[in-house]
Automatic annotation (TrEMBL):
Residues 15-108 form the Dinitrogenase iron-molybdenum cofactor biosynthesis domain. This is Dinitrogenase iron-molybdenum cofactor biosynthesis domain-containing protein. PANTHER family: DINITROGENASE IRON-MOLYBDENUM COFACTOR BIOSYNTHESIS DOMAIN-CONTAINING PROTEIN, IRON-MOLYBDENUM PROTEIN-RELATED-RELATED. It comes from the Archaea.
Length: 116
């Protein structure tokens, strides 16, 4: 099973789109995928980094760690975010902003499978 996190623009969920900035995305959509790649659970969380005056990406990454995410998907991750994610053993994967969450999760599953 994999737990994949995606910063999302709208109300979250599989039909939402990937936010252009993970740390400031309004929502974080957490998707659990079984070993066959089937979505088994979707949860939408408020992103505490969205309204933070500073350290937005750190606050967003803390959500991933608390939720036990294996991977995070977004359009780009800065050097600080990449360093923190690497330290926390969370795989970061890039997709174009505006990608549907469902498609981003499918891409993440393919990438995670290729790494195992």
């Amino acid at each position: 099973m994999h737990r994949i996190a995606v910063g999302t623009e709208g109300e979250g969920g599989l039909d939402d789109v990937v936010s252009h900035r993970f740390g400031r995305a309004p929502k974080i959509t957490i998707v659990d995928v079984d070993d066959d790649g089937k979505v088994v659970n979707v949860r939408v969380l408020d992103n505490p980094g969205a309204s933070a005056s500073g350290g937005a990406v750190v606050k967003a990454i803390q959500v991933l760690v608390n939720e036990g995410a294996d991977a995070v998907v977004g359009p780009a991750f800065g050097p600080n975010a990449q360093a923190i994610l690497e330290e926390m053993k969370v795989v970061n994967l890039t997709v174009p902003e505006g990608t549907k969450v469902r498609e981003a999760v499918e891409a993440a599953v393919r990438e995670l499978r290729s790494r195992s």
